[in-house]
Each structure stands twice: as C-alpha cells, then as structure tokens.
Amino acid sequence: MNYDKLIDQLTIQQLAHALYLKGEKEGYDKVTDKTKWRELVIAENLGHTVHKKISAGSGSLEEGSDSYDSTRGKYGEYKSKAIIDIEVRNLLRQERNVKTGKRFAPLTVSGLYNGAYTSGAIDKYTKIDHYFGVFYKELCLLIIKVNTGYVIETLRNGLLKMTERGSTNCNTVKVNLGDTHLYDVVFKDEEWWNENK
Description:
The model has no long low-confidence stretch (mean pLDDT about 90). The longest helix is centred in the C-terminal third of the chain and has 18 residues, at about 150-165. This protein is an alpha+beta fold. The chain is built from 7 helices and 8 strands; from the N terminus they run αααβββαβαββαββα.
C-alpha cells in the first residue's frame, strides 16, 4: 500500500489519534500507551488474541501474558524491539568486508520483564510462550518464539543479580539472533526481506 498521499495529508497527531481510535473501536483502551499497539500487530501476524487490558491482573489466568493462542491453548508474552537504520545491517547480517566476507554481528533482541522481580513471578512465566518482535519504522519484520527454558533461566539469573545490587527492576532477557538454537522464527515479512537483501 502506498502511504505517501495519506502521510502528506495528515499530521503526526492526527495519525496517532487515528491509531488510538482504531484501538478503541476494537475494544482496546489506550492502544497507544507503551507498546500496546505493537502487541496487536504481533498477535495479528500470529493469529493470537490480545488481552483487552494493558496489564493482566495479578492472580488471573492471564497473569504475565499479553495474548492467548486458541490453537495451542497457551498464553503468550510479547516483547518488541524497534531498530534504527544502523541496526538493519545486523538484522540482515550484511557483508562488512568484501575481501574477507566477514559479516556484521547478529542483532540482539532484548525483552524487559518488569514483573520478574520475585521467584513466584518468574514461575508464572514458565507456563506461557515468549515472543520477541523486531520493528523497523514501525513495520513488524520478524517475530521469534524464544525457548521458555532460556527465558526462565535468564530471568532467574537476573533476579540473583538484582538481589545482589538491591534493585527490583530491569530483569531483561537478551537473544542474539545468531544463537538460532534459542528460538524459532514464527513470522518474517518476506517482502521486506527480499527487497532489502
């Protein structure tokens, strides 16, 4: 779809307002809050249903998740990374040196788990799937399903480090896309990848 004409006609505020109203029309409060709208994009690409609320309440079945996959009967947690121009070369593993054939380092995708500051909270994440999306200019280019065992191990190690520092936030899971044994690719915008090889 060619968006040039539409972009020229609307201001950023009008586009953001339209996004807000679209989310509201579909039953999502404040779809522009944080990255809720990205959850809708990831879910659409995966065939999942996003929870209507921004945060699934403590003690609910949905706790620690953003969506539900009715095909698999599992909840899912979504994380997303917005990359900038210079990171495209890492995502694509473009050639860095023509003579040696050396390529740029693989992109690392991080997911911040705000609620993972107790062992009990981390245990909730053992029962759900974990999806990390990569966005460029707000287009979803790639979604990976990260191995749950890896997520839990990383969060538990992060909790130990937080405890040592006396901190209770910023428990992060990082996935280097070169470590393909840690994830499965579940969505790829093939058209974009083919145009940008």
